[in-house]
Amino acid sequence: xxxxxxxxxxxxxxxxxxxxxxxxxxxxxxxxxxxxxxxxxxxxxxxxxxxxxxxxxxxxxxxxxxxxxxxxxxxxxxxxxxxxxxxxxxxxxxxxxxxxxxxxxxxxxxxxxxxxxxxxxxxxxxxxxxxxxxxxxxxxxxxxxxxxxxxxxxxxxxxxxxxxxxxxxxxxxxxxxxxxxxxxxxxxxxxxxxxxxxxxxxxxxxxxxxxxxxxxxxxxxxxxxxxxxxxxxxxxxxxxxxxxxxxxxxxxxxxxxxxxxxxxxxxxxxxxxxxxxxxxxxxxxxxxxxxxxxxxxxxxxxxxxxxxxxxxxxxxxxxxxxxxxxxxxxxxxxxxxxxxxxxxxxxxxxxxxxxxxxxxxxxxxxxxxxxxxxxxxxxxxxxxxxxxxxxxxxxxxxxxxxxxxxxxxxxxxxxxxxxxxxxxxxxxxxxxxx
Length: 434
Hints:
globular; disordered N terminus
């Protein structure tokens, strides 16, 4: 029988340099064995937090009864700070575990009879979780939605022609609700599939270089990134993958994982949206026999790596605060307090003779910024190029933040993102310099 899962394993390389990691929150699972051999092992499943500065692992809590973890079947609820994974307990019962990330407390673990979906992806805008589920009886792959409270799996639609799935090569664009994954069709072609999450319809598929793996989507610059290595002995690199034609463009090499025995742990990549940082776990890279976590910023070409002192799997990044700001979601913390974070993404921009732009703020924002509590506070304007690199930053008094034009005369042609941070508001808009 054909193995449905395509696992790409390459020897990878990387190089370390300093990178600002403050604010990145990483969580994962670590199993502490206490005895036994083979599949008859005993021990404890721990929920842990990884320090992005030094690789130290802090035990937050032990998950009662948990034993096995389904590889590639975990995600993070970026609306409620919750770590989600499918696993099997000591009695061989399938369960969907929900962990409160800040405390490590297990919130629920309902037993489920269905086959666990793989390649789980969380929609930061709408708060839904999607994945892929194979039906061996029908010989079909299904696009599914997962209820994180009950573990119930709802089949949205079957995916015609899909036979295999590349583990670790799925991602989600929360801006437009598109699920991307790599897989093989029944003719043996490796393809990139684009699925509309609302309907389950395949929007399109294209063949691509199948040695691009560990996909991650940056929603601030609308780009899909992945890892690529052309052959043994060649350097690992971060590439951008065109979502329409499957073509890859090299962004930067990562030479800190050296040697033919260095590799990437399948399904280990995550993306910190707030800092636009691509993160993955490597082995035998920093030094022989050492696990490591690598941090790469495609926009600024910065990178560094740290050694990991425990075998942490299913590492996830907490983007809850980012999602609340970027998509204007209501976020409730553990105390039930609504955080005062608002984002209006429909800020307007007007062009002035093609050499300058001027902000057009929504009326309610102008009223808010004009009140007494906001006066005198500085506002910050940042321009980012298509690679996510900040090309200009300036501060302005809130009272006149939209009064004066912003010169773009010396910028190259291209697509730019403008971010305005003022008081409790963050506004984002895009424009084209022609």
